[in-house]
Design brief:
There is one protein chain. By secondary structure, the chain is an alpha/beta fold. The protein has one domain: Rossmann fold. The chain is 50% helix and 12% strand. It contains ten helices and eight strands. The strands form three sheets. It has a four-stranded mixed beta sheet with strand order 1-2-3-8. It has a two-stranded parallel ribbon with strand order 4-7. A two-stranded antiparallel sheet has the order 5-6. The longest helix has 24 residues. The protein is globular and about 55 Å long. It starts with 5 loop residues before the first helix and ends with a helix.
Length: 243
């Protein structure tokens, strides 16, 4: 299916919130929502399918430097998170942008052939993440009753890639489902694609996404990780925190 932008997703949530209030009553609905877990992951596609699109993005990058593009993203994101809070979201996990320069797609179209991650996309992600962490800290301190949590997926996935063998993987740079390219990143996974023999041994399922095996490890570290992975508390602590 097509992608739904974050504003539209929040619009859908606002409608469901109104429906809950109609069905359950305002007090019960607000109580349920303020105790619920909200997870927000945004940013990767804004880079991969916008600022970093081959050829088509060149004119935009010529007039919009990386800092300006990222600042615009952060300003909009801050407004969206505040809107969620005003709609009774209180326990909010904000997931940062992973090392997008390491996905097979960007390895294939942006690296020089040495096999390393593409440097520029990772620099964009790191700059975005630094600003995002500051926003999460600011909102957590300034919005009464809120618990904003910052999940550092960039750190987690970077660790899986750098130490893939110790995590049970055999391949950290290429897609299990592939069509073409040195890293299998030149085309999306589809019915005519070829497949690896054992997807559980690959960090990446396709040109863009981690495998199920990698996602299990990522989810585990978000759920129960230490403050280096997710802070100020992990998801399990957040769920059972009545503060």
């Amino acid at each position: 299916g097509g992608r739904i932008n974050l504003d539209a997703q929040i619009d859908n949530y606002a409608k469901n919130r109104r429906d809950m209030m109609t069905q359950r009553g305002e007090v019960a609905a607000v109580s349920r929502l303020r105790g619920a877990l909200f997870s927000v992951t945004m940013g990767s596609n804004d880079f991969i399918n916008n600022y970093l699109v081959p050829v088509l993005s060149v004119p935009e990058r010529a007039v919009t430097p990386p800092e300006a593009f990222i600042n615009g993203m952060i300003a909009k994101y801050r407004q969206q998170l505040i809107r969620l809070y005003l709609l009774d979201a209180r326990k909010i996990v904000v997931v940062n942008v992973g090392p997008i320069g390491c996905i097979p797609y960007l390895r294939d179209i942006m690296t020089t052939g040495a096999g390393a991650c593409a440097e520029f996309p990772n620099q964009l992600a790191q700059s975005f993440n630094r600003k995002l962490r500051a926003v999460v800290t600011e909102l957590g301190a300034g919005l009464g009753g809120s618990r904003f949590v910052y999940a550092d997926v960039y750190r987690i996935v970077s660790d899986l890639i750098a130490n893939y063998k110790s995590h049970g993987f055999e391949v950290a740079d290429s897609a299990c489902c592939y069509v073409g390219g040195r890293f299998g990143g030149l085309a999306p996974c589809g019915p005519t694609s070829s497949y690896c023999a054992d997807r559980s041994k690959y960090v990446f399922w396709d040109a863009y996404h981690p495998s199920d095996a990698a996602n299990v490890l990522i989810a585990s570290r978000i759920l129960d990780g230490d403050p280096a992975d997710i802070s100020p508390v992990n998801v399990r602590q957040l769920l059972f925190d009545d503060a």
